[in-house]
Amino acid sequence: MNLARLDLNLVVALRALLEERNVTRAGQRVGLSQPAMSAALARLRRHFDDDLLARVGGHYELTALGQVLLDRTATAYDLLERLFASQADFDPAAETREFKLVASDYAVSVFGAELARVVHEEAPGIRLRFTQTPPTVVDDTATLLSAVDGLFMPHGVISDFPATDLYDDRWVFLVAGDHPAAEGPLTLRDLALLPWVTYQRTYDAPAVRQLGMLGIEPRVEVSVDSFQLLPLLVAGTRRIALIQARLARLLAPLADVRVLEPPYEAVPLQEALWWHPVHTHDAGHRWLRETAARVGGRISRRRTR
Fold it and tell me: In what order do the strands lie in the sheet with 150-154?
């Protein structure tokens, strides 16, 4: 495939056609006349050797290839948009820009809130938009990173993308304040026999893998898609939960729970900001990374014990 011979404007037309499934509406969306959009569709059909849009009754439906291209075109469009929005210079005090960041509720609570305060003070025209980490992040990291400015994720889950370290953390356990185990150290037998509340995704995979290596298969009674809900689901029960120490310190006052140390040398947690290589030399993104690293260093200096 010789990209030099391709008209990248066709990416804009292709996305509009696949999403609108109507030549007239697609043309209105991108500012092209109906004949111009029809000509673009004809060129795309020749290129892909496929109809892309097939008439069914009084409307169009996507062909099998059109369906495949639907998500890929949106990803390519977002990547091109970010590529050509790159800047050689960036003045945070004067710029207006939005950075889209993917993070768990843990990362937003422990790190994102402080990052937002610093950005508010130093770059009033900059907006941060946090979105929840999707279940597909491990399966298709490249697609996710191509459409956002960054992903907050600990080391040991994804790899092969540029990253900057932010702060360290460690794993602890939560039990109810009146739990029999609250007064004494947890044992491996406790972890094997007590019911668990777990974060239902696998992004804490190193910690979960470590339990498996110790021969412990958590008896999961409740799973939840939020780290912040773990204390509420532990309080008043015999359940236990594995949680990050920095988040536990923030949340423990909100519920009647106790924080206990693991009965083993738990694998450490190193949170990082990951990004797509297309952002590496963008001045605005470089400022974001440097600011994030500065905030992360400040958090790391705070003890978790």
Answer: 126-132, 97-103, 150-154, 269-274, 163-169
